[in-house]
Task: inverse folding
């Protein structure tokens, strides 16, 4: 594993997990980073070259005058893809917000994506969806100018970086004890580093959160983008996801019955962290089946 940086109107950090052949680009969610993929990246590298990007305002990639809104980070992702794989399309693997950005990228630049893996992707609310009240309350606060800034600053003043990180991790899983110990430790260490060295992180988080809410409220438009996708797609969802209700992915699977849909019982929002071996098994089966076309096209 190597940490690398590209210049895309400012530094863009990514983790290179190695591997050869087709390129997999892993895209984190809101508040996430390349650390989210550290337990599965090296093993995915058995099948392809694997890189995990830090979007603008997240991980080790600063805002540096850029926007953390989803459309801006989709453009950044597109330029990143052109740099890491200039002569062939890539397979995108996006979690949560990263899933929504991956949908935008695939719909807008289909020639640069040969396959898509959506892991609990942020998406419009299903008719029978029931979001956790605490999560709904948080996003309501984030969406209000001034109120969101006050709320984020107040929490940062009252809680240690480690406490904030543990709270965020707990929202992302059914059982935090399932997370590999080294993965939890890496997230806590990065939380301390972010608190000490990255004053732009709160601004980036709010920009992205507000942009995400605005995008997903336009359900018919987002569904048009999802319907337009013509590459092999794997949709993975945990049944006990607090952030993206399982009903959302079930509805999407009914809209796109040609996609491969896999649902994990008793799993939360980040299966690649909570059940990494199960997630890897799912990826391997997909690579041997519908995803083979995507691998071949990206070679």
Result:
């Amino acid at each position: 594993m190597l940490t690398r940086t590209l210049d895309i109107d400012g530094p863009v950090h990514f983790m290179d997990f190695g591997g050869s052949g087709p390129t997999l680009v892993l895209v984190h969610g809101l508040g996430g980073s390349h650390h989210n993929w550290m337990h599965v990246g090296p093993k995915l590298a058995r099948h392809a070259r694997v890189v995990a990007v830090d979007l603008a305002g997240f991980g080790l990639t600063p805002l540096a005058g850029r926007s953390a809104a989803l459309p801006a980070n989709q453009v950044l992702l597109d330029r990143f893809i052109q740099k890491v794989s200039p002569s062939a399309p890539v397979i995108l693997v996006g979690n949560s917000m990263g899933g929504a950005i991956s949908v935008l990228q695939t719909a807008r630049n289909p020639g640069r994506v040969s396959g898509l893996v959506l892991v609990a992707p942020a998406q419009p609310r299903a008719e029978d969806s029931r979001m956790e009240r605490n999560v709904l309350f948080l996003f309501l606060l984030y969406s209000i100018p001034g109120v969101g800034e006050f709320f984020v600053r107040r929490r940062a003043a009252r809680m240690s970086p480690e406490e904030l990180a543990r709270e965020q991790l707990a929202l992302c899983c059914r059982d935090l004890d399932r997370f590999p110990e080294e993965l939890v430790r890496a997230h806590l260490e990065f939380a301390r580093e972010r608190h000490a060295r990255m004053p732009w992180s709160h601004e980036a988080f709010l920009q992205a959160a507000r942009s995400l809410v605005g995008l997903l409220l336009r359900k018919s438009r987002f569904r048009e983008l999802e319907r337009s996708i013509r590459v092999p797609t794997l949709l993975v969802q945990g049944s006990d996801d607090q952030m993206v209700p399982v009903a959302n992915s079930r509805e999407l699977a009914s809209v796109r019955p040609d996609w491969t849909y896999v649902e994990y019982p008793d799993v939360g929002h980040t299966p690649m962290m909570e059940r990494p071996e199960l997630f890897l098994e799912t990826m391997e089966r997909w690579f041997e089946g519908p995803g083979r076309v995507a691998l071949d096209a990206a070679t």
User: Anything to note?
Assistant: Residues 2-297 form a domain with the Rossmann fold fold (CATH 3.40.50.1820). The longest helix spans residues 181-197. The CA atoms of residues 67 and 221 lie 22 Å apart.
